[in-house]
Amino acid sequence: MNQPQSSILSRSFSIPVLLLLFFSLGCNHKTKKDEMNAVEPISYEPSWESLAQHEEAPQWLQDAKLGIYFHWGVYSVPAYGSEWYARNMYIPGSSEYKHHQATFGSQKEFGYHHFIPQFTAEHFDAEEWAVLFEKAGAKFGGPVAQHHDGFAMWDSKVNPWNAASKGPKKDITGELSKALKKRGLKLITTFHHARNLQRNADKPETWDGYDSHFPYHPDYHTSSNDPELAQFYGNIPEDQFYENWSGQINEVVNQYQPDMIWFDSWLNFIPEDRVKQMCADYFNAAAKAGQEVTIGYKQSDLPKEVGIQDIEQGGRRDITERPWMTDITLSNKSWCYIEGQTYRPTSMVMRNLIDVVSKNGVVLLNISPKADGSIPAEQREILLEMGAWFDKYGEAIYATKPWDLFGFGDAKAGEGTHGGQSSKVHYTANDIRFTQSKDEKSLYMIFLGKPKVGDKIKLRLLGRHRYTPHSEIQRIELLGTNQEAEFIHGHDAFELTIPDAPMDEIATVFKLVLE
Fold it and tell me: Domain Glycoside hydrolase family 29 N-terminal: where (predicted)?
């Protein structure tokens, strides 16, 4: 049947119009996710209010639980005393002062900078180090980019005293950054150079003041007027020092894009405006690159909303709402390599790490390479033993969160040297720590040792009328085996019977599978 001409024209006109309207609406329709992705990166201003808008501890850090860094530099050459040799060799009466004179001669003739040519790093292999960090179970790692001594461990245009142009003549930070990132590890660079300025250089009577790393003394190289030596020893005007301080941080950020920058206190000695500008520059660079970053700090050097607080060689006594960090070292005597160094047993390192994780913390573990770039066998052994434990029980650590209670036990924690509790607590199988999966479907019960087969572990606080898992316990597994454990979950107490199965001397994990 023929249609009227007007009807045909109307239909032929309406179809293209409708199609055009459909595609127009379709192209303009954006989901909330599209709109969020289309938003320009936030721009941070150098004010605490603006900087507080940045996430203090990104999820990758909270999930990582373990990072590795290292004290390695010019101070590794004398291999005596500690990484503070650079300062202490100039302090009359100190063991380093006496050792230096007996071994290298007068400080007037042989200054700290004379060690630099001996910092050769000929055995440094970034790929090998990155593999070792990964095998140890670390999820991030990196160098002490610059210690108090002012020697930069990267290819620097700001600081002529750097590893790429002197000593090793290698871009240590650059090589390691590539090797770590290739393996999916995040990069941390730590800065300790706020102490380097000789703040009392114009007051000879206070030349040994603690607020300067290198003591001022008119007879030593530390007070040299040579422009390069003056910069190295911090004997320069404050404005120049502060410009160099921030310039070096910006240089590392721009050249290597670290996922975390971390400061070894003394930010309170840097003008506040410079600190705020440094934070803003870092956050803005990361936002532009789509990178989730964070800043580590000590004491009260930054507002708690701006970064993650670190307690040196210490821990918390209970769970904290905010994530936190602790930096600890494998060694007993020094953070850097020294002759005759002794080490903490793997069990102590791991048990204290588990305690930290149970309380919402992250561990930054220090190792101590030799001046030639080799990592001592004793340290390698500890790291590999840690990795073997993580291979079996990592599920109870990585990407977990604290439970309602951190745990129970007999161990008494002493006071930490820098606040909090000690990082050298002697835990045993009588001490238990808890973590849980993010979806709260698994609760991990970690014995900090090897419980005895057949023992019945009775915990009143886990009774149904007290602290109890958020849903019913379906079964309990000895992690790393197919062995299930018998249990009773009564109103007055929870009781676990230790099964006859292989358990770990370092720490044994039971997984409570919940409904």
Answer: 39-395
